[in-house]
Each structure stands twice: as structure tokens, then as C-alpha cells.
Amino acid sequence: MQLGNLLHDLEQSIPAERLLRRPAQMTPYESDALTAFRARPAAVVLAETQDEVIQTVRLCHQYDVPFVARGSGTSLSGGSLPVEDGVVIALNRLNRILRLDPTQRIAVVEPGVINLDVSRAAAPHGLYYAPDPSSQLICTIGGNVAFNSGGAHCLKYGMTANHVLGIKAVLPDGEIVQLGGASLEVVGPDLTGFFVGSEGLFGVALEITLRLLPKPELYRTVLAAYDSLEAAGEAVARVVASGLLPGAMEIMDALAIEAAEAAVHAGYPRDAAALLIVELEGERIQVEAEFAHLLQVIEASGPKTVTVAKDDADRARIWKGRKSAFSAVGRLSPDYLVQDGVVPRSRLGEALATIERLSRAHQLRVANVFHAGDGNLHPLILFNGRVPGELERAEALAGEIIRMCIDLGGSITGEHGVGMEKRQHMPAMFTETDLAVMAELRRALDPGEIANRGKMFPSGEAPTLRSHGPHPLERQGLISRE
User: Strand 218-226 and strand 305-308: pairing?
Assistant: First the structure.
């Protein structure tokens, strides 16, 4: 690694005010939303153009210095944690919507574009961008691509991978590739889907072509309160068994309700043990018919109360409480860890009972907020990092929840990614052969493992260097270069 030479060359190509070197300047970049991990990079490049990103990546490759691409830093798995003595490439200033075509229903955006801004730009054309993470007010499309983000409505519409048609990217060796295009019809391997969710290990997305959808004609949103989490989970099972496919089904427990009410005054019933939010959306005739059926199913599940959103403002209030839940939990505890495991819907009740038991065993409170429709749990483990041993207990509890998800036939992550946090759990979910193949694919594109080094894979060993040459995908004619 030739860090000194890299920094010298960066000084020649990046204006001084956008090449951060002093400790005070770099402090905001030492961590992401998983604040339990911190690392200080050698420099932060505040890129303003694609050429600056490409030049920085090429210099990092030339001098064998690791780099991490970063958007808003909302990763909850340590995915955008810097590498010690590496370079952070900050992408927030690459925030242009380059093209919005209402006829083709696509938007071509730079990686620093905020998720919600895509829908705002598309709204005058009666269109919107479907993936809606809770952090959509601040998270970037580049980060969504890296971690295959979902959101409350992923039950019906899928994850980021289902809405990205094409990607222009710079690979870790500085070469430019174009994956996919502007069409839903893909010929050959889905290399766009291959890139989405790769957590920055395959390079940096420079332009992303997004699929836009027509705004639903009608929404019907129901808020049902229950005396227990088990009852709310049973209601989810009833809705699924009924044949209905809601746009979203979300559950919040008593702690999450308390936090949301304190933060945004969403009007949730404070005496409920659990809340279930179910939303139908689509054409008016279909939604009205399905809504009558949904109300019958909900009433049969034995709720304490059932509230139906009267208008758009009422709907927005219900969702504001849910989407603020993560940050609102900060009112209940100075620190918290957010987990992101998945279990089969049929075993939600068992999973929640286990989390409650583990919470008592570790003497730590857990607030549960989750995408009930697809079994994506988001338990928030409350702790005080100033109390000796509490962080370690919180991490141990988080680890047991992840192992429970695996044991129940689920996954270690639904949308937050593996990052730094879940690396050690990869061998419990994947065989040695699985992990070896993943590593081989990564090294095919990045022999020196300079892109987001240290993330996802459990091994802390030095990377195995391989000879530089044409990438295997290029030799097979599966990627094009500029």
C-alpha cells in the first residue's frame, strides 16, 4: 500500500476544500448509523462529478489503497464504515436526476439522489418510486442499491433489485461498465441484479436507471390494536390466508408505540400491546372490494380497536409514526442496536416469543418493529453504552436473535445487509463452498479486495492477490466497457 503517493496524487486532482484530511473534518465519516463501530480513514473525498469518483477509484487501485463509497451513512450494519488508512468517497454531491422519462416510466439518477426525491420528481407525471425504506427522507439511491433496500411496501412491490433496470458503475480497478439498460426485458444473465446488494464489493454505481410505477388510484389504510404481539401475528396469518395481497403489513409493539407517540404524536392507542398496519392500494374498484374483505378478516382476529384512515393526512399520520420508530426509540434509551433477521411468516409468533425470552435473560429491553408480511424482523435492543458490559450484552443478544432466525429457516438479513455486524454469522447460514464461491466472484472483479474491504466475509485474513487481466465476465462478453 502506497498511501503517501495516493494522497499526493489526490491533492493534484481534488480541490483542497473537498479533500478532507484533518481529524476534525473526518470525524462525521468515522461511523455510520451503527455507531458501535468506528474507524478513521486517511482521507475523505467529497466528489462532485463522476470523473472525480472514477479518478479516485483508479488511484486507489494503482496504489493498492482500500476505499469505501458512502452516501448518507444510514447503514445499520456498518456497511459504510471506513477502512483504517483507506479513502472514503462521499457521494452526496452526485445528486442529480439526469433524466426522467414518463413515457418509458424510468428515471436515471446519480448515486447521491435521496430516495424520496425520486418520487417527488415523478409525482407531476402520476408516477413514483416504490421502494420506501424508513430512512427514505435521507437515504440515497446508491446506498439502496448497495444493500438492496426494501421498506414497508416491499411485500407487494419487492426490493430495490426489482426496480433497478440498469447501472453504470466503476469497478474496483477503475474501469467503467454498463449493466442492464432501460428495459424490463433482460437478455442473458441479470448482471444488474448481481450488482444490487453487493454491499460495495463490486465497485461504485455512477448512474442508476430506476423503474417508476403509476401512483395507485386509491389507498385504504387500517390500524388495528391488539392485546398481545401473538394476536397481531395471528392477524397477519389470517390476512395472508385470505388471499389478499396488501401493499404493506407492519407490526409495532408497546415499546415502539411509546417511542413513536413521544416523538411524532401519531395518535396510536397507548394501551395496546401491539399495532398492525395494513394498507391496500391500486385501482379504486379493486381496492374497495378488497377493503370490505380485509375489514372482515381483521374483525375476526379479535382486535381491541380498528381505525381506518379517513383521508391522505390521516394516512400520512399513521405512516409517520411507523417510519419514525427507529429514531424515536432514542427517546427511550441512550443507545440501541437494530437487528434485521428474517423468519418464515408461519413462525413469527415463535420468533417473537423467543425474542421476549432472550430479552429477559439478558436484562435488556427490546422494541419490535417489523415488516410482518414477509417476516422481516427489526428488533431494537436498548442499552446504555456508558454502563460497563451493556454493549457486550446487547451484541450477545443480537447474535442470539440472528441464530434463532437461521434455526427457524430464515435469513441473517432482510435489507440492512451483512456489513461489519453480521460477518461472523455467515458460516452458520452458508457452507464453506458457498462462501468460497462468493469470495471467488468478489476477487474476479477485485483481486486486491480494495472495495469496501473487511465487509461481509467472516475471514479477517489478508486478501489473496491474483494477477490483473481481463475480468472473467468481460472475456465471456457479459459486460460492456467505456
Answer: antiparallel
Chosen CATH of 218-327 out of 3.30.70.2190, 3.40.50.720, 3.90.1170.50, 3.40.710.10: 3.30.70.2190
Is CATH 3.30.465.10 the classification given to domain 1-215+430-482? yes
Residue with cell 454498463: 178
Mean pLDDT of the chain: 91
Q: Tell me whether domains 218-327 and 333-425 share a fold.
A: yes
Give the span between the Cα atoms of 207 and 476, in whole angstroms. Answer: 24
Per-residue pLDDT, 330? 84
pLDDT value of residue 459: 65
**Cell 418464515 found at:** 344
- Give the pLDDT mean for 186-206: 94
What is the mean predicted confidence (pLDDT) over 186-213? Answer: 95
Interacting residues of 309 by C-beta distance below 8 A, sequence separation 6+: 219, 220, 221, 222, 223, 315, 317, 318
List pLDDT tens digits, range 262-290: 888 889 999 999 999 999 999 999 999 99
Sequence spans of domains, the chain: 1-215+430-482, 218-327, 333-425
Which whole-number Å values give the CA distances from 92 to 42, 138, 303, 308, in the listed order? 19, 10, 44, 38
Checking if the pLDDT of 481 tops 80, the result is no
Which long-range CB contacts under 8 A does 392-396 form with residues at least 24 apart?
Answer: 393/362, 393/363, 393/364, 394/335, 394/336, 394/337, 394/362, 394/364, 395/36, 395/337, 396/362
Answer whether residue 473 shows pLDDT above 80: no
CATH of domain 333-425: 3.30.70.2740
Q: What does the pLDDT look like over 396-426, one tens digit per residue? A: 999 999 999 999 999 999 999 999 989 999 9
